């Protein structure tokens, strides 16, 4: 496949990708869109021009919308047909390639668009599915000899997060204030968090509504997953460590989470499937699965101080995940919990074995013991005011590249 | 105040109440409504007839809706004016009292209506604010000598719950299946929960959207609270105890929560304000508050086996709450977490000091050690299939009664 739109070889948005998002075009018009190279394509107008007319099940212009929810609810047969149609249209031999009027109407340069949240998120769950991350945290906060808790290898541990404060890449986040109890203090104190952290995660988005009492099996799960985004689960470690026993993380997390604007479909990620780490002990039947359910996605985290350059501080990979998405969704629904279109399910911090693959400052600096040295000659134990954290992710194989772009977020001083 | 609608002295829905809900009328027409005695009043048609014409800020017929969200977002000046107008209209001296046509069009008997969820719930948080409940749980599962965790008296502990599975009273709930690890088992097992429980709670509903980074102080909090409902936080104890360390309750809770259909406003509850239990140690500044922020609301739980009578198994009171709603909302937002219209914030199990005031089977039977004897000569350690749990709540003072009606839910066998 070769497109009439030119883009560099290392573009995340090759013709093999065709992700979906929502954009404000020229500050005035909002519609669902896709992207190739650095061109953003207005799908609502493309629909009006009849390019999707013969796609069965696509009866309304669901792209005339502020979110992708209506589109993704149509399910895989329709959303895959749309994605494949877009690939055909972008081919250098297509009729669109010579249709200057449509191109002028529907194709925008990146600088003409502002990306919005791709979906409305009715429910958000965060898992804890990297064995390296869970082990690191267990070593630091509990018992180095028994870092993993007894349940960890038997079920994908997760908890409900805050849906209201998930924002799109580029949104600024205020440093949270809160209660914390320094180790040497007798009583808790109140103030801006001094241990603000990121967590390198990915999240998947569900494309269907289920009824309460209904479950989704590991075999059915991938049909219910539209695609994935990069996810930064900002965390205030000092607030979190004082509050989280016994009911879990709360104000240490719910002040904000950032996501990348482009939803990359599971179909675009298919070429990058890999097997998962071996699960030992064997899991219960409802968590068993067949085939390669993991994905080889390179992940990077950059820290950029104000007026400074980007510093690459972490190189990890989604393939390290112990629990896969199919297991996460099967576990989440095995008790009859219903899911909704647009639900977001995050992976938990994705750490690898190497020290430079740890997906949080907490792990990278080992609780602040080994500060990171930045190229502007400053050091970081945690994230400082006006720092920007940028996460990037892409898969690459046999010359085919499919990526997520980035999720970026700047920390402003506390209000 | 005396209404032209007759109702018994012990009706929860006196002219002093005027709660709000959403009903299906005659199986075909949905609108927001209020209730007096056993009459349900269609507010959308009442609006069309001009009875609210002069209320400032009520420009659209927000009662023509499937949820109360649009109405409550108008804020207290409007929602209070509407409530007071309804009280005037229901007075025996009002013009409505002699307007037979309007009464015939807008007033329905209870058996002509089916109540729906009163609000769309964008986010749901569950607190843990009864000191008696937290102490009971701490004694059973941790250390009887140090039952309360160190953070408990310093902040209103809470966690995010699942919004998608909150259902209205009368909805049946399937017994959840899941992973659990019996004390004598070497490995976890999978199956229907054997320790299904209720939790007697109340929840408040927020009437505004805030921006990320914004906080709501204890002084501002009650202006942001539209009203309250009864809340049954169904809990599968065996699933919960295996999963909840370290990230909190998840599948042990998210299979379903039940709420009463009528939202009782804070204004209707004003006459029943009482002071809270003394908080010692003193709380941090952002949790301090002035005035009586607690409410004297009698709470009862009934267990009804299939084909059996109701058994009163718990008598508690909302006034036992250690942390009040203003503190809960101030804490929740002190880190800049944004709230949304319709958000539901539940209290946590409301237990008192007496053994018959404990708000869950876990506490009433002390983990199953002392089964409850029912009047059909059966016993219960936890909730069995086809049992119905009914919670009722009302406030009463100087002959004025304002109540919530009930939240009822039947447990069906596992799917």
UniProtKB/TrEMBL annotation, chains A, B:
Any one Gene Ontology molecular-function term assigned to this protein's record: fumarylacetoacetase activity
Domain of life: Bacteria
Top-level enzyme category: hydrolase
Xref: InterPro entries: Fumarylacetoacetase, Fumarylacetoacetase-like_C, Fumarylacetoacetase_C_sf, Fumarylacetoacetase_N, Fumarylacetoacetase_N_sf
Enzyme Commission number(s) of this protein: 3.7.1.2
Fumarylacetoacetase N-terminal domain residues: 16-118
Cofactor(s) in the UniProt record: Ca(2+); Mg(2+)
Domain Fumarylacetoacetase-like C-terminal: 125-391
Pathway: Amino-acid degradation; L-phenylalanine degradation; acetoacetate and fumarate from L-phenylalanine: step 6/6
Keywords: Calcium, Hydrolase, Magnesium, Metal-binding, Phenylalanine catabolism, Tyrosine catabolism
Gene3D superfamilies (UniProt xref): Fumarylacetoacetase, N-terminal domain (2.30.30.230), Fumarylacetoacetase-like, C-terminal domain (3.90.850.10)
The name this protein goes by in its record: fumarylacetoacetase
Species of origin: Chryseobacterium suipulveris
